[in-house]
Amino acid sequence: MTDTPAPPVVRRVDFVVLPAVPRVAVPSRRRRAMRVAVSFTVVLVALNLGFGLLLDCGPPHLRDPEYGLRLSALRQRLKEHPGRPLAVVVGSSRTAMGVRPDAVENGEGMLLFNLSSAGAGPITQLMILRRLQYDGITPAAVVLEYWPPFFRGDGAYREDGRLNPTRLRPEDTQTIDEFFADPEETKRRTAESRWRPFLAHRKPLMDRFAPGWLPHTERGDAMFAHLDGWGWLPGRETTTAAERDKGFPHVFNYYWPLYRFYSVDANQDRALRACITHCRALGIPVSLAYLPESIRFQTLKTAASVALADEHLAAVQRDTGVSLIDARGWIADDDSLPDGFHLIRSAAAAFTRRFAAELPAHVKLCRQ
Fold first, then answer.
1. Is the pLDDT of residue 153 over 80?
2. How much is the pLDDT for 280?
3. Residue 255 Cα distances to 52, 211, 248, 344, angstroms
4. Which of 138, 175, 306, 328 is deepest in the core (most CB within 10 A)?
């Protein structure tokens, strides 16, 4: 009998089918990096465009702190003294430190305000006057500083060469076109700063918001950080003979060659006359003011430079009929003028009292 093999045992195996899990796309490191880079670029461009727009359309002190802070103070003084006629003094650091309106302010008469700017010769003065008109303020009288060194306009003495293009406003274009040696280059540099405003304005921003981050020698706010509410920039409180002797070589090295080869630049002369024409077109009486110089500083001048400067000043007065507040001899001692042409604080107060007393007569003369 043949054995029949037993049938194979089949074991049942149950399979559990799980629902398919959707595959989630996980970006690669490269893709993530690209996204971060693109996002950063978009944010950076947006911030630059926004800041650039703010510089052009926002408060003036953002682009040009020296002018803008004075403008804000001036608006506040006008608000506090409605109806009083405004007299503004426009000049360089000499007038910024020399004309101290708080020394004569008593709530009566003309409202005197200092609207000067460091290094401002005729071109910058014209720019300030045009800005003031653009900003909606028309003074009752204007006094312009006259100082011969600012009429030397060749080489390193060019006034437009001293101006930082990042501080120029869109409404300065007319002045740039009329009086700058290379208007297109200036406008190119100004436009370039508008495309990268944070980089162009990094130092002014640090001066204003993080002054401790910069060494004292690299800060650029010395001409506006301590302005008072009348536009006056306080100079030194006192000076010693040793301090004056130490600083005099710097003054000598700059002004001796300036006076030795002195000349009156036609462009600077034209800018001064444009200032006078601008004021007259608006019906504003305008005078010139020649501030004090120390006896020691006057020794740097040559007879020829004095003759040229006096001849030019006389020609301007003859041609335009503008009056002159000649204060050259009011204060001449070295103690009051440490470097020869910037007044200390107490001397500025004394000077301004005499200046304010003479101003009404010049305003009246200009109106005739």
1. yes
2. 96
3. 38, 32, 10, 20
4. 175
**How many domains are there within the chain?**
1
Q: What is the pTM of this model?
A: 0.82
Calculate mean pLDDT across residues 178-204.
78
Is the per-residue pLDDT at 95 higher than 60? yes
Six-digit token pair at 34? 């690209």
Residue 277 and residue 275: Cα distance in Å, rounded?
Answer: 5
For the sheet containing 323-326, what is the strand order?
111-114, 86-90, 141-145, 286-290, 323-326
> CB–CB of 299/255 below 8 Å?
no
Residue-number span of the structural domain to which 294 is assigned: 35-367
Spatial contact of 235 and 97, defined as CB atoms under 8 Å apart: yes
Average pLDDT over residues 197-216: 61
In this structure, the number of other CB atoms found within 10 A of the CB of residue 97 comes to 26
- The pLDDT of residue 325: 97
Domain presence at residue 116 = yes
**Cβ neighbours of residue 320 under 8 Å, at least 6 residues apart?**
273, 276
Instruction: Identify the CATH number of the domain in which residue 52 sits.
Output: 3.40.50.1110
